[in-house]
Design goal:
The chain has about 160 residues and is of the alpha+beta class. The chain is built from two helices and 14 strands; from the N terminus they run αββββββββββαββββ.
C-alpha cells in the first residue's frame, strides 16, 4: 500500500515537473524581440558605431549617409529614403543598405516598416538640425526642415501600436 502511494506521489511530481518544463520551453520559444539599429556617415568621422532603440547617433558634423536595420522575431523590414540637394532619392533603402551618397548633406529622412512589423509597431524618428531636435515623426512622414539645413544627429525607436 505504501509503495503504491509512493508511486502515485512520484508520478504526480513528475507530471508537475513536465508541465513546468514544457511551459518554460513554450515561453522561451515564443519570446519576441524587436530592435532598430542605425548608424551615420560623416566626411570628418566616417561611419559611426551602430546605435539602437532611441540612442543618439551622429555628432557635430553633417550626416552624408545612413544605414538602418531591424532585428526581430517578427517578419518584415525597415524601408527608408533620404533627401539631399532638394531631391528625394529615387529608391528606398532597406536592411542596412546605404541611403545617401557619402558626399552630400542629408536634410530629410523618411522610414517605415513592412509586413508583421508594420502591423505591430510604428517606427519613430527625429533629427537634430541647428542644435534643435525636431518633433518625432512616424511611418514615412518627413521631418519639417523648411530651410533644408543638414541633419547632424538622429534618434530612432519602435513603438507598439
Amino acid at each position: 500500500m505504501k509503495l503504491l502511494k509512493s508511486k502515485r506521489i512520484l508520478a504526480i511530481v513528475a507530471l508537475v515537473l513536465l508541465i513546468i518544463i514544457l511551459g518554460l520551453i513554450l515561453i522561451i520559444k515564443n519570446r519576441t524581440y524587436t530592435n532598430i539599429y542605425y548608424r551615420t556617415y560623416t566626411k570628418e568621422k566616417g561611419w559611426s558605431s551602430w546605435k539602437k532603440n532611441g540612442k543618439t547617433c551622429g555628432n557635430d558634423y553633417s550626416i552624408k549617409a545612413i544605414q538602418i536595420k531591424v532585428k526581430s522575431s517578427s517578419t518584415g523590414d525597415v524601408f527608408y529614403k533620404v533627401k539631399y540637394n532638394d531631391t528625394w532619392e529615387d529608391n528606398n533603402s532597406y536592411s542596412a543598405k546605404t541611403a545617401g551618397n557619402e558626399k552630400n548633406n542629408i536634410n530629410n529622412i523618411r522610414a517605415m516598416l513592412s509586413m508583421t512589423l508594420y502591423r505591430k509597431y510604428q517606427v519613430m524618428y527625429r533629427v537634430k538640425i541647428n542644435n534643435k531636435w525636431s518633433d518625432w515623426k512616424d511611418n514615412y512622414n518627413e521631418i519639417t526642415n523648411e530651410d533644408d539645413k543638414p541633419i547632424k544627429q538622429i534618434e530612432m525607436k519602435l513603438e507598439l501600436k
